[in-house]
Specification:
Blueprint lengths: L7 E2 L16 E8 L3 E6 L4 E17 L2 E7 L3 E5 L4 E17 L12 E4 L2 H11 L5 H16 L2 E2 L2 E4 L3 H12 L7 H7 L4 H12 L3 H18 L4 H7 L5 H12 L13
Parallel strand pairs: 1-3
Antiparallel strand pairs: 2-7, 3-7, 4-5, 4-6, 4-7, 5-10, 6-8, 8-9
């Protein structure tokens, strides 16, 4: 899905003064991180919204026995529930930001992890909270940030990996060769299972179909390439598409914007 970098371990920010409290339930922190910087698996007792003002990051979470990898560009943010173990790897040098939220302000029904679209207003609110101090303005910023988060569109950008050994082998094979246009039946033969069995495993283990899962894998493969300025024609070919237009149509339908939006010249 992505190249294997030489990881540069970074210290986890565990300072007590960053903890969101009942009086200040929404806190924002900024941190510059170099390409290939890596935050080891960790968790927080509070909810966290992980976001990059610029750059690109990969976040892998372990939740309910499943491992899911998210590729998060600047126009998106990952909502991480309390107690969920996660690992962060910076794919392109990033202005890394975290918004920490006290349990008292967690929106109803937002227990799981999800990717949200970052609006221009939410981006500016996150930035303003970084230097905000206690007072009426701080309270207004926190309230508006929460409201903007709950109104944000949610998108499927995660690539989950299953527990079943056969299905995991198939998924890992697809991730190693996202441009391969093999059918599910052909992939199934390689792992010693029938197409029907593998299709059932996708539904029961990952709650999705093979085609839906593969689309997420392709998006996760394509986003880093686009962030590095790779021509769309090359990204389309590497993703298994015979034409730029077909790839662009799929991409826009999934993310709401064309591939060019995620290239360096457009803000990454």
């Amino acid at each position: 899905m992505t190249r294997k970098p030489t990881l540069k371990p970074e210290r986890i920010d565990d300072r007590e003064d960053r903890t969101p409290t009942l009086l200040r339930p929404v806190r924002s922190r900024a941190r510059a991180m170099a390409m290939d910087a890596h935050l080891a698996p960790h968790q927080h007792p509070w909810t966290q919204l992980t976001y990059c003002a610029s750059g690109l990051m990969q976040v892998t979470i372990a939740e309910n026995g499943l491992e899911t990898t998210f590729i998060v560009p600047p126009s998106r943010a990952l909502w991480i529930a309390p107690g969920v173990q996660h690992t962060v790897t910076v794919l392109e040098a990033a202005e890394f930001r975290t918004v920490d939220l006290n349990a008292s302000v967690t929106p109803v029904g937002w227990q799981g992890c999800r990717v949200i679209v970052v609006t221009k207003l939410l981006r500016e609110l996150i930035h303003a909270l970084e230097t905000s101090t206690p007072g009426p303005r701080d309270e207004a910023l926190m309230a508006l940030t929460l409201d903007e988060i709950t109104r944000a569109d949610i998108q499927a950008l995660g690539v989950p990996l299953p527990r079943d050994k056969r299905l995991r082998a198939l998924c890992e094979a697809v991730l190693r060769a996202p441009g391969e246009r093999a059918t599910l039946a052909e992939w199934a033969v390689d792992v010693g299972a029938s197409e029907r069995t593998v299709a059932r495993l996708f539904r029961t283990e990952l709650s999705t179909s093979y085609q839906q899962w593969r689309q997420q894998a392709i998006l996760a493969h394509a986003l880093p390439m686009l962030a590095r300025g790779t021509p769309i024609s090359q990204v389309a070919f590497a993703s298994g598409y015979a034409s730029d237009s077909a790839f662009s149509a799929m991409f826009k339908a999934a993310l709401g914007q064309p591939p060019s939006f995620f290239q360096v010249k457009n803000g990454l």
